[in-house]
Amino acid sequence: MPNSSDKCNAKVIFAKNLRRIRLEKKLTQEKLAELASLHPNYVSSVERALRNISICNIERLALALGVTMSELVADLDQQPE
């Protein structure tokens, strides 16, 4: 049985994509949180793969970043070249 402190792969992929896109857009976690109507601590914990984020909050973050929800969940390491 997996340890409850283990981070599931989907959360890690989402966290990496969220951070990468946020930095590409030159946004702080605080500004992204404001744009998405979320708390900055929540955004931080999502970027550290500590939260099991809801589909509604994925949508909020995607809209705030100006990307599709699928861009946030895409496993870029598994994409064909």
Key descriptive features of the protein:
81 residues, mainly alpha, 5 helices, 59% helix
Question: What this model shows, in words?
Answer:
The chain is mainly alpha-helical and 81 residues long. The protein has five helices and no strands. Helices cover 59% and strands 0% of the residues. Helix 2 (29-36) crosses helix 3 and helix 2 packs across helix 4. The longest helix is centred in the N-terminal third of the chain and has 16 residues, at 9-24.
How many DSSP H or I helices? 5
Low-pLDDT regions:
none
Tell me the major beta sheet: none
Q: What does the overall shape look like? A: globular
Q: How many strand elements?
A: 0
- Helix content bin: 55-70%
Beta-strand portion reads: under 5%
Helix-strand topology string: HHHHH
- Indicate the mean pLDDT: 91
* Structural class estimated from helices and strands: mainly alpha
Q: What is the C-alpha radius of gyration, as a whole number of Å?
A: 13 Å
Distance between the amino and carboxyl termini: 35 Å
At a glance:
The radius of gyration is 13 Å and the shape is globular. The mean pLDDT is 91. The protein contains 5 helices and no strands.
Topology at a glance:
Layout: H1 9-24, H2 29-36, H3 40-47, H4 55-65, H5 69-73
